[in-house]
Write a structure and sequence with these properties.
about 80 residues; 2 domains; about 70% helix
Length: about 80
């Protein structure tokens, strides 16, 4: 009799945990901001120039003047993207 009660309690506890997990996943997915493709593309835009990137770009251009092509020089950059 005790084994049956223990088994039943174990089954109900497992089902309750599954239910709580499922509900929390659904709630968390609805609360997070949607990542639309447009937002992702704007975040990954290589032509944006931040202060950190301009400092690094300047150092790279001085160290490797003939080897560095920046995304800001769009025609050269687009031409070389497909070369690899």
């Amino acid at each position: 009799m005790a084994f049956q009660i223990f088994s039943l309690l174990l089954v109900w506890t497992t089902l309750l945990l599954l239910l709580i997990s499922s509900i929390s996943v659904i709630v968390l997915r609805r609360l997070r901001p949607s990542a639309s493709p447009q937002n992702i593309l704007q975040a990954a835009d290589p032509t944006t120039n931040t202060p950190e990137s301009s400092i690094i770009s300047k150092i790279l251009a001085e160290a490797l003047p003939h080897s560095v092509i920046f995304p800001q020089s769009t025609p050269d950059f687009k031409e070389l993207i497909g070369s690899y």
